[in-house]
């Protein structure tokens, strides 16, 4: 089996499916990094469960990508045999876990977007995407609830937990603009326009921040580039770990 | 055996495969077995995943193959179908009762996602008391949350609504 990277000739729909799959895989991998290091037993389970949901979503999407691609690639090829520049995930999701507050703030900012997004995608004329969304939206609802509860507890907690939650929010906020970046597939009327969810996202996040006594950062310059493969330095390190085994021992099974 | 009888027998054998994580439930109880198709000697089975990341699906597919081969049907083709999305409403009445008897509170029927953000009332599967509380929303598997009963003081698993 080859160890070389694959190249994908992506149509707008295939690119879209890979972007969403990459989002789920990269955040799922980040959450899995908490295995054995979570602050308490219940949280160990919660982080692993959420990571598993996301990796499951990634598998369904990569499986669909393989169908669309027709290049004989498998779901594993997309995860393990593409280079950093070929990944189209949001920059927000590759940001390091940091402390527990940063992980939960990242989860809130993403879940508050993706939960209504999956529900909107359930109306897609593309039956496969609609079916994947119908499964994922039930999972994202749990993730949103869990992250919201933690951000409220941390923000409205001790001076130290408040300080950390605010610092995480300030650090991650510039990555939220990319959530609403236009997707080429929107043009075909197949998928919802992310920008149409901006107001709902803002309201959902604000409700949590108010209860958490956290100050919403001022609107300012936003980071972008993830969808085009221009990543922060963190993704390469993540992929080195994620892809090490299948790249080093091609075709390994156990 | 007539084709209808063969189909019924395949449904019975495949449907009796148990969920590896909740061994009291069969895949028929769970509503995971969706369809059986015959084309001459070839057998095709459709199953649907409960949760996107459910690690039991590969094992369930393998056990269906083994069970059907053991019952004298050739190796079946097992397909994973996504639509319509599985929800806890696909659990049969018998499946719910088996869960409760096993000590897992069954999901409420037609709870829907909105129940998630409201107050849930989950009766204790041991003593029936409704004086219960959630300890952790994510339990030992993707499908369960951890609760405890304030009447009999026992912790219990709750099969989450999806
Ligand atoms: Zn009880």
Based on the structure, what is the oligomeric state of the protein chains? Answer: heterodimer
Please state the structural category of chain B.
alpha/beta
- Note the run of SSEs of chain A as H and E: HHHHHHHHH
Global shape of chain A: globular
| CATH architecture identity of the largest domain in chain B | 2-Layer Sandwich
> Roughly how many Å apart are the termini of chain B?
39 Å
Molecular shape of chain B: elongated
Q: Biggest sheet of chain A, in brief?
A: none
CATH class of the largest domain in chain B: Alpha Beta
Number of helices of chain A: 9
Report the bound ligands by name, code or SMILES.
zinc ion
Mind explaining what this structure looks like?
The complex is a heterodimer of chains A (254) and B (162). Chain A has 9 helices and no strands. The model of chain A has no long low-confidence stretch (mean pLDDT 94). Chain A has a single domain, classed as Ferritin, core subunit, four-helix bundle (Ferritin, Up-down Bundle), CATH 1.20.1260. Chain A has 254 residues and is mainly alpha-helical. The model of chain B has no long low-confidence stretch (mean pLDDT 88). In chain B, helix 3 links the parallel strand 2 and strand 3. Chain B is α/β, with parallel strands linked by helices and 162 residues long. In chain B, helix 1 crosses helix 3. Chain B has 2 domains: 84 residues, 2-Layer Sandwich (GMP Synthetase, Chain A, domain 3), CATH 3.30.300.130; 69 residues, no CATH class. In chain B, the strands form 2 sheets. In chain B, strands 4-7-6-5 form a 4-stranded mixed sheet. In chain B, strands 1-2-3 form a 3-stranded mixed sheet. Chain B has 4 helices and 7 strands; from the N terminus they run H-H-E-E-H-E-H-E-E-E-E. The interface between A and B is medium-sized, with 29 and 25 residues.
């Amino acid at each position: 089996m080859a160890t070389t990277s694959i190249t994908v000739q992506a149509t707008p729909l295939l690119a879209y499916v890979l972007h969403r799959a990459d989002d789920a895989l990269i955040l799922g991998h980040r959450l899995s990094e908490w295995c054995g290091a979570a602050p308490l037993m219940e949280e160990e389970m919660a982080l692993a469960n959420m990571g598993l949901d996301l990796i499951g979503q990634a598998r369904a999407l990569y499986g669909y990508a393989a169908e669309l691609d027709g290049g004989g690639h498998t779901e594993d090829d997309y995860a393990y045999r593409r280079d950093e520049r070929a990944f189209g995930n949001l920059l927000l999701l590759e940001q390091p876990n940091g402390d527990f507050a940063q992980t939960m703030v990242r989860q809130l900012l993403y879940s508050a977007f993706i939960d209504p997004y999956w529900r909107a995608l359930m109306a897609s004329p593309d039956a496969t995407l609609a079916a994947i969304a119908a499964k994922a939206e039930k999972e994202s609802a749990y993730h949103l609830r869990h992250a919201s509860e933690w951000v409220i507890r941390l923000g409205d907690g001790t001076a130290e937990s408040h300080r950390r939650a605010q610092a995480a929010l300030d650090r991650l906020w510039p990555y939220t603009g990319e959530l609403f970046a236009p997707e080429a597939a929107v043009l075909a009327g197949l998928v919802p326009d992310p920008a149409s969810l901006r107001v709902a996202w803002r309201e959902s996040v604000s409700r949590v921040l108010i209860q958490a006594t956290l100050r919403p950062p001022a609107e300012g310059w936003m980071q972008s580039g993830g969808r085009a493969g221009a990543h922060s330095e963190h993704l390469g390190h993540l992929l080195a770990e994620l892809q090490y085994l299948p790249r080093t021992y091609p075709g390994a099974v156990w | 055996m007539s084709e209808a009888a063969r189909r019924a027998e395949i449904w019975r054998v495949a449907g009796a495969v148990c969920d590896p994580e909740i061994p009291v439930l069969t895949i028929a109880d769970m509503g995971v077995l969706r369809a059986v198709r015959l084309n001459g000697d070839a057998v095709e089975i459709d199953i649907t995943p409960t949760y996107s990341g459910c690690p039991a699906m590969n094992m369930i597919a393998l056990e269906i193959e083994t069970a059907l081969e053991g019952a004298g049907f050739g190796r079946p083709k097992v397909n994973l179908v996504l639509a319509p999305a599985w929800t806890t409403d696909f659990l049969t009445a018998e499946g719910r009762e088996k869960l409760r008897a096993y000590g897992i509170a069954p999901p409420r029927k037609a709870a829907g996602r909105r129940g998630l953000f409201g107050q849930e009332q989950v009766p204790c599967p041991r003593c029936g008391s409704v004086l219960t509380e959630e300890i952790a929303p994510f339990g030992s598997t993707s499908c369960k949350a951890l609760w405890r009963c304030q009447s009999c003081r026992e912790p219990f698993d709750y099969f989450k609504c999806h």
